[in-house]
Amino acid sequence: MPDTRHFGRIAATGIVVLGAAGAFLYLGGWFSPKALTPARFADGFERVDGIYSGFRLNHAKGVCVSGSFASNSRGTRLSKAVVFKAGRVPIIGRFSLAGGNPYVADEPEMVRGLGLLFKLPDGEEWRTAMINTPVFGVHTPKAFYDRLLASQPDPKTGKPDPEKMAAFLASHPEAVQANKINQSHPPSSGFDNSTFYGLNAFWFTNVSGTSIPVRWSMVPVQAFAAANTTEPRPDKNYLFDALIAAIHQQPLQWRLIITIGQPGDPTNDATIPWPDTREQVDVGTLTLDHVESEDGLEDMETGPCRDINVDPLVLPEGMAPSDDPLLSARSAVYSQSFTRRAGEKKLPSAVTPSEVLK
Amino acid sequence: MSTGAATEQRQFTARMRFFHWLTAAMVLTMLGIGLAMVASLAYYHRLISIHRPLGILVLIVVVIRYINRRYSTLPPFLPTMSQRERKVASASELLLYTLLIVQPLVGWGMLSAARYPIMLYGSLHLFPILPHNVMLYAVLRRAHTILAYLLSLTILAHFGAILFHTWVLRDGIFNRMAPWRVRAH
User: Fold this and answer.
1) What's the complex ipTM?
2) I want to staple A79 with a disulfide (CB 3.0 to 4.6 A). Which of A204, B59, B116, B181 is the partner?
3) CB distance B38–A327 less than 8 Å?
4) Which residue from B minimizes the CA distance to A336?
5) Which residues of A are catalytic?
6) In terms of CATH architecture, what is B11-75+82-177?
7) What one-character-per-residue DSSP string does A231-274 give?
8) How far apart, in whole angstroms, are the C-alpha atoms of residue A210 and residue A198?
9) pLDDT, tens digit, for every residue of A109-119?
10) Is B129 an interface residue toward A (CB < 8 Å)?
11) Separation between Cα atoms, residue A73 and residue A78, nearest integer Å
12) Under CATH, domain A38-357 is a member of which superfamily?
């Protein structure tokens, strides 16, 4: 056995092994306890909005829809993605309201979301999570996190501290500018006549290998009507109830519009709109003809959208993320949110199975 | 090399050494990427886009490596290793093989249970091996982390044992698996 003369060599062995372990822990962020990680982002949502077992950390209140997307094949010029070939693909979707409270009372000014999953015939998928504002309110993950913390309700008043939000806006002129643009597009009366925007830029590549920067939106076929923001809300689920009634009456439709960016159009800043003069291509029609509670058709079931992560970076070949820093961060935090709720016992959703049936 | 008795063999075969170093490079990369990606917002997507196909590649390589090992002649243990140490070495080798095969399967399985499309490269993707079940996903996702740490610790122990033999006992154990050829003398 080694004696004391070997002490130096034993120590060297120990130091090298510990060094190797330390390098791995460093990679895993163990020595940077203040860095903004997906887990700390998720903790931020839970701190501000509270913990609701089994729900998404953001856009917690929602309802499942399904239907199909019919491509008119005009998108094949832009991208080789299978979704743009002429034909129809099945859709699973989810309408939602922004925020982490799944039981929040519907308000017309709340940000509305539409998440879609396109099931492509070759087994690929395209998932996109959109909202009803033309631009995003912040341009970096850190700014999103800071705005989230600034919106935390004061335990005394139950409302966000206006000074904190003012301080956030004072240091984020791009957020002020984005708010102005979004306020110039007042909300529509319901989910059915809302335009939903993909916000972030992506790259499309067609069969001949040409790549172009794009943004996309879903423009409703249903006629626009301004939201009534003055009268009292008829019900805490009134936006969802109206959506359910509209789908029961007739299928709802949106046109998928691809906006093509030009050199110089920012792809890394979702707060800045591209000029109105950019070419827009109508590539097909989304039809939603079925609505279901997240808790299924009857109690103890599961709606088709509930256990799906609408990760905006689940893309088919022919689409790729841009350099927008929000995209990777969204993917990372959505994954964290999905993993947390997957292991939690799900509480009943606000929009119940019986509410959808009536 | 001698054509005589098997005891003359001092090194693992060239093919075994090739597989060892290939696996080592791939697995260390995988562990590094895995640790970094779960802590990163900015690089998450880029890292996971490498992690998925590389994990499947590890599975394929390790299965081929294990088959190759079964049909190869192994050099004898060094006299510096006690009976107990030989048992520990054999057990840890088995543990490493098990982890290297189970870990990619758990990764594949958890993506299946989460109903993610398991994209490898371009439009190439894998079929799901488990039904869509988020509770199952949650369990496997946790298992994937635990197995990653267990794998890291096993590799560290292996690395530490080789360093100890090489630097402290100076028995030339490294030569057995050296990437280059070491002649008998």
Assistant:
1) 0.93
2) A204
3) no
4) B38
5) 59
6) Up-down Bundle (1.20)
7) SPPS-TTHHHHHHHHHHHHS-EEEEEEEEEP-TTS-SS-TTSPP
8) 22
9) 999 999 999 99
10) no
11) 10
12) Catalase core domain (2.40.180.10)
